[in-house]
Amino acid sequence: MSAELSRRAGHYAAAVAERLLDAGLPVTGVQSRGPWHDADGGEYLDVEAGISFTQAFQDQHGGGDCGLHWAGTSGWCLYTADQEDRYLSGVRWPGAGLLPEPRIVAAFVDAFRRDPAGAGSSEQPLYRQEGQDFAVLLDSLAPYLPAQPCLFEEPQIRFADLHRRAYEDRVRRALVSRASHPLTHLYLRQGELTALLHLLEYAESSTPSALNRLLAADLGARAGQPPEAADTHKSAFQEAHHRRQAF
C-alpha cells in the first residue's frame, strides 16, 4: 500500500510539473513517499509529494528553501524561506481542495509570483484525516497515472522525459529566429564564450542532442566575427530547419 500510494502521488506531482513546465517555470524534479516507519521509532502515517525548482528560482523568493509540497491531508502549498529561516514560515495554501487539477496549481503559482502575500491563504486546510481512507485516495489519484505505464512506471522516469522535451521545445522555439526579433549585441569575454561551449559539450556528452550541437556550432562560427558579419550570419539551426521544411 505504501509503495503504491507513493507511486500514484508521484505521478500526480509529475502531471502538475508538466503544466508548470508548459508555463515556462524552472522545475527540476518531483518526489513522493508513502507511510513509513524506521528502527528508531520515527514514522510518517500518510502520503506526500513535492516539486522542486532551480536555485535561481529559490533566490528570487527569499534565497532559502522554496518549492511546492502536496500533503495527502491538506493538498498543495507553496513554501518559501529566507536563508536564516529554518521553519518555512512563508507558506501559502491555494485552498483548492485535496487534488486540484494541474492547471489550477499552475495558476496559483503564477499568482504567487506576482503577489506572494496575496496568493492563497496562510491557513492550512484539512481535507481528510491522516492515515485514513487510503483506498479512496488511491482511486482519486488513478486518473493521473501515465497513459503508457510500461514506459513510465516510475514518476521520476516520466518527469525526466517531460523535462527533456520541455527544454528541447524551449530551445527550438528560441532558435527559430524571425525577422521581427531584435538583434542583440552581447559582449562576452573569450573565457566566458569558451566556458559556454564547454558546458554545451558537457551537456552533449551527458545527453546527446542535435540542438546542443547546432547551437555550439553557431556560437563557434560567430566567435571572432565583426558585428556586421555576425548580423548576417545564418545559424546552423536555421539552416537545418530550412532544409527540413524544404522536404
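That was protein one. Protein two is written in the same sequence-then-structure order:
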Amino acid sequence: MAPDVAQVIKHNRTLLYRHIATRLALSVALFAVPFVAHLVGYDAALPAFGVPAALFVLIFLALRLRHGSRLRVCEKVLRTYPLEYRTRVSKKASEWKYIGNVHTVRLSVRGQHGAPSLRALNASTVRRWPKGAEEGGAWFAGDPAFGGVMIVPVSNDMLFVQPADWEKYEQERSQADPQRRVLAEQAGISRLLEKEPHILVGG
C-alpha cells in the first residue's frame, strides 16, 4: 500500500522544524555565554568566543535551509507524479556536504537492470541514512532523467533525488516529449537544484 502523502510531508516538516528550533536554541545559548560569564564575574577571554560560534551556527543553518532543504520541491513532485514502488534500494556511497549528506543510490525493481544512479538528499535536512531503506524497498515519484522523490515506508523519511551524473541525461531531457517536460517544469525539477554552495574559508 502506498504511503499517506500528507502524513509523510507532516513527518518531514516536523523533523525540519525540530532541526531549526534546535539550532536557534543553540545560537541563543551561545550568544548568552559572554553576558552570563560577565554577570558571575568570570572575565576570561574564552566566553567571548560564544558570539562568533553562535553566528557560525546561524550562517550554517541559513545555508542548509537555502541549499539543502527540498521539502517544498518534494511536495510539488508528489502533487505532479504518481508513486511507484521500487523493490530494491541500493546505497552506493554517502558524502558529507554543507547542504547535507548526499547519498548515491539506485532504485530498481527486482529482476530489472539498468537503474540510474541518483543523488539523494533528505528533504528534512536530517543527515542520517533512513532506517530500513535497503530492507523494505521504497516508493518513487518523478522522472529518473529529471529527478523526483524517494519515500521510505518504514520510517516515512523523504529524500529528494536527481541523476548522479546530470550531464549524462541532458540529451534525454532535451529530446523528451512536451508532456514530459511540462510535468518536470510543474514539479520544479527541470533544472539541477542539487548544488553545493561555494564557501570561502580564510583569506
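The radius of gyration is 20 Å. Keep this in mind for the problem set.
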